[in-house]
Amino acid sequence: MPGVAKWLIVARKHRETLGKVMATRYAASMYVTDRYYNRVASLEDLNRKEAGDGNQTVSLNRRLTRCAQLAGQPFANLVAHVDEWVKIVKSDRDDIGHHFGRRQSQHTLEQFYLSESTYWLYVLCLLRLADAPDAVFAQIAGNYQFEGLARRLAKFIPPPGTP
Q1: Number of folded domains in the chain?
Q2: Which residue, among 55, 6, 25, 5, has the nearest Cα to 116 in the 3D structure?
């Protein structure tokens, strides 16, 4: 029961973004770019609330890095190169949000998988905030869908220093 109580406290604090993220998961139809954008915005807001720096200018790169650090090893294993992942996601968010159109029409599959990684980052962060036991993270990391996503992401996230 203490674990459920902790989860309810975390879910209540992040109610708005939790609802937004879950809608991206269960909506009957949603554009990949909308799903991706809403998930990144939810991560940004989650970090803003947790860090307590809502009125300060903090870069999205920093916020995503903080979320990745909070999520820990399961997320690092999922994306392999967190710093490169952060750069790609930030660039995609800017592209989508400002309608630059640089990657939107060309890389839908890549954006789909990157969007899935942002979903899992949000989930892992909430579970960390709720003090979920290590067994929960082991179950997630060992799930065949999570492992499959890691293999797919490896095709899109280059090692540091790769042109």
Answers
A1: 1
A2: 25
CB 94 within 8 A of CB 100: yes
CA-to-CA separations, 4 to 9, 131, 132, in angstroms, rounded = 9, 10, 10
Instruction: Report the percent of the chain where pLDDT is more than 90.
Output: 67
Q: Is residue 159 part of a domain?
A: no
How many Å apart are CA 158 and CA 88, to the nearest integer? 10
Within a domain: 126: yes
- Cα distance between residue 138 and residue 74, in whole Å: 8
Q: Is residue 64 part of a domain?
A: yes
Give the tens place of pLDDT for each residue, 20-76. 999 999 988 888 889 999 999 999 999 999 988 877 788 999 999 999 999 999 999
Contact 73, 131 (CB under 8 A): no
